Amino acid sequence: MPSSAATTVTKTPKDKAPDAGASGHEADAHDFFWTYTEEPHRTRRLAIIKAHPEITKLCGPEPLTKYVVTGVVALQTFLAWYLHETPFWSLKFWLVAYVVGATANQNLFLAIHEISHNLAFRSPVANRIFAIFANLPIGIPYSASFRPYHLTHHKSLGVDGVDTDLPTALEAFVLDSILGKAFFCTFQIFFYAIRPMTVYRVPLTRVHYLNIAAQLAFDYALVRLTGGPKALLYLLLSSFLAGSLHPVAGHFIAEHYVYETVTPTQRNPDNGVPVPETFSYYGPLNWLTYNVGLHNEHHDFPAVPWTRLPAVYDIAREFYQDLPRHESWSYAIWRFIWDPNVGLNCRVKRKQGGRIVGGAINWKESEIQA
């Protein structure tokens, strides 16, 4: 198989990275994996393009996205109305919210993820506005803020203090137990919502204010037209369950947490043995989640839309078929909670590198999507 960038890691104290020249470093099993290498996706992308230049033809917007999003927004709006007289604590209310609502809102989370890469329309402005529309059944305005944080995650994968997908040292320390990990999995939607603001804040723009205004107007109209808060509570509950103990929520954990057993040989940076930091899933839940399970493929080619990610795998199969993968998102959650060798500290971190998108540095759109 063609080689990709090796990621050499080591365990170090939580408040500092290891000495780059250290040899035979004592590994702390309760800390993150630190590396000094470049994130692997850019290196593999260049190697794939060299081997299969035709793969770049897969880039560009997917027209189907706008129809899928519109259908899911309509479904959730209808169900919110349908349940507006159903008691909140009834089995029916929670069952519909868990089975249909959480799945639908996770679909919308990932639609916004897709739209953040300008993959619904060619116009960046059209994508920003459509993301606000996709946000409506989620109940809380977040699409405008998600984009810069997520694109920074791509540009600064694993960079401590920049990639807000990484758990903080405090989270990893406090939640280092079965109960702590269960708490994290149950309420992880709140961790992903609050953590970015504690790491660094992106400046508010007109798109943010439009996102907030549109969401407040939609929520107000929904409460007024249904005569009470239950319709809005259904949407908010759907969003909470979509990021809780739900099969489709497994992708949050499965994408970048290191589940592979890390040997002492791998922990020693002098050995140059790579530890993977992105994992794909090729199962049926991809049908409901814009193929987000093909996560190595997505990070390698973020400008390729969800409908064409399977083609990336097919064209460059020799680069992907031997990479470690997840067979089940539900099992990924189960193992994350119960396996003592897997936890919030099982992430690859870098002390330097990357750049913030939407911060003090103004990227060109072509640079962001590259």
UniProtKB/TrEMBL annotation:
Chain ranges of the Sphingolipid delta4-desaturase N-terminal domain: 27-65
Catalytic class of the enzyme: oxidoreductase
InterPro entries: DES1/DES2, FA_desaturase_dom, Sphingolipid_d4-desaturase_N
Membrane-crossing segments per the record: 64-83, 95-113, 125-144, 172-194, 206-225, 231-249
UniProt biased composition (Polar residues): 1-11
Example of a GO biological process term: ceramide biosynthetic process
Membrane topology reported for the UniProt record: Multi-pass membrane protein
Domain of life from the UniProt record: Eukaryota
Pathways per UniProt: Lipid metabolism; sphingolipid metabolism
Cell compartments where the protein resides: Membrane
Biological role: Delta(4)-fatty-acid desaturase which introduces a double bond at the 4-position in the long-chain base (LCB) of ceramides.
Name under which the protein is recorded: Sphingolipid delta(4)-desaturase
Annotated source species: Purpureocillium takamizusanense
